[in-house]
Design goal:
Two copies of one chain form a homodimer. Helices cover 76% and strands 0% of the residues of chain A. Chain A is mainly alpha-helical. The first copy, chain A, has two domains: 59 residues, Orthogonal Bundle (Arc Repressor Mutant, subunit A); 139 residues, Tetracycline Repressor, domain 2 (Orthogonal Bundle). In chain A, helix 1 packs across helix 2, helix 4 packs parallel to helix 7 and helix 7 packs across helix 8. In chain A, 45% of the residues are buried. Chains A and B meet through helix 6, helix 7, helix 8 and helix 9 of A and helix 6, helix 7, helix 8 and helix 9 of B.
Chain lengths: 201, 201
C-alpha cells in the first residue's frame, strides 16, 4: 500500500472497496443523524474520499440513499429479523429471540439509535415515491417471511390470520424501536416479546 | 380589521392568535417535511408573519419545536388515542375504535403522513435530550392511560401484564403508522386492530 504525506485523501486502486466504504459510512450517518441532515460532503469527509470518487459510484444523493436501503438496510433486516425466525425451532421462539436479541444489543451499546428501516421509512416515505417503494419492499419482505413461517408451524392457521399476526409483529417491533429510542431503554421490546408470545401460544 | 395593499405581512393586534397560528403552521410543516427540513423562514412565510414576531413568541427553533410537541402533538394524542379509550364501553372496544377510526381518516385523506409523535420521535430523539424527554412523556402518558383502563376493565389482570399489553398496543399503533406511511395504505392498522382484539378477549 502506497502512502503520501499530504492531507489529500489517498487514492485507492480498489473502487469496489471504496464503494462499500461509502455505503457503510452513509448508512451510519443516515441512521445517526438522518438522511436530510447528512450532506454529501459529510459522507465524502467521513469516508476519507473525494467528491469525484463518490460521484463516480453514486451520481446523486438519492442514488446513494436507495443503495443504502438495498445494500445495507435490507441485508440487516434479513440478518437480524428474517433469518433468526426462519431457522428457530418455532415462529414463537424465533420472535422471542429477535426481540430479546435486539434488546440485549441495545443494552450493550448503551444508546438506542433505532431501527434503520423505521428511521428512513418515516423520514423519506412522503418525500419521494422511489424511497417509499424501497422502504415498503423491505417491510413487505419481512411481513411475508413471518407469515410463511407462522403458516408452516400451524398449517391449520387461517391465511388472513397469519398475515394479520405477521403485520402485528412487524408493527410492534417497529413501534417498540421508536419507543426504545425515545426512552433510551430496551424495555418496550421485551414487553412486546412477552405479549406476542402469549398471542402465538 | 384594517387592510393595506402592500405585500408586507399585515400587523395583528392579537399576539396570542398569531402565536397559535405559528404553532399550527409549524406542526403541519414538521409533520409533512420534518423538523430539520423546515427552516424558521419557512414557518415565517407560511404563517404570513415576520421574523420579529416569531422570535417574540419563540426565541429559538428548538423552543418552537418543544411548544409544538407540548401544545399540538400531545393534545392530538389525547384526542385521537387517549380519550376514545377512556370513554369506550371497554378497553378492547376503545382500541378497535382508535385503530379503525385512524384508518378511516387516512383512507378519506388519501395520503398517509404518519403519526406526528412517531415522526418527531424518530427524527429528534437522538438529536437532543429535551426533545427526547418531551416525546417520551407523550408515549408514557398514552401507555399509562391504556394500562389503567385495562386494569379497570379487568381488576384481576396482573399489573405487569397490563403494562406489557399497553406497551404492545402503543408500539403496534406507532409501527402500523410507519408501515401505513410506507405503503400508503391503512391496512396495517386494521390488521393490528384485529389481532389486538384477540389478545384482549
Amino acid at each position: 500500500m502506497t502512502q503520501d504525506n499530504t492531507d489529500r485523501p489517498r487514492r485507492t486502486n480498489n473502487p469496489q472497496a471504496m464503494r462499500g466504504k461509502i455505503l457503510d459510512v452513509a448508512a451510519d450517518l443516515f441512521q445517526r443523524q438522518g438522511y436530510n441532515a447528512t450532506s454529501v460532503q459529510d459522507v465524502v469527509r467521513a469516508a476519507a474520499t473525494t467528491g469525484g470518487a463518490l460521484h463516480h459510484h453514486f451520481p446523486t444523493k438519492k442514488a446513494l440513499g436507495l443503495a443504502v436501503i438495498a445494500e445495507r438496510v435490507a441485508p440487516e433486516v434479513d440478518e437480524t429479523a428474517i433469518r433468526p425466525v426462519a431457522t428457530a425451532s418455532s415462529a414463537a421462539a424465533g420472535i422471542r429471540n429477535v426481540f430479546n436479541g435486539v434488546a440485549d444489543t441495545l443494552e450493550r451499546n448503551r444508546a438506542v439509535t433505532g431501527c434503520p428501516l423505521n428511521n428512513l421509512a418515516l423520514e423519506l416515505s412522503l418525500a419521494d415515491a422511489d424511497f417509499r417503494e424501497a422502504v415498503n419492499s423491505v417491510f413487505e419482505r419481512w411481513r411475508i417471511a413471518l407469515s410463511l413461517r407462522l403458516h408452516s408451524d400451524r398449517p391449520d392457521m387461517d391465511v388472513s390470520r397469519a398475515h394479520d399476526l405477521a403485520t402485528l409483529i412487524v408493527a410492534s417491533y417497529s413501534g417498540a424501536m421508536a419507543m426504545a429510542k425515545a426512552s433510551q431503554s430496551a424495555e418496550p421490546l421485551r414487553a412486546c416479546a412477552v405479549q406476542l408470545e402469549t398471542l402465538m401460544s
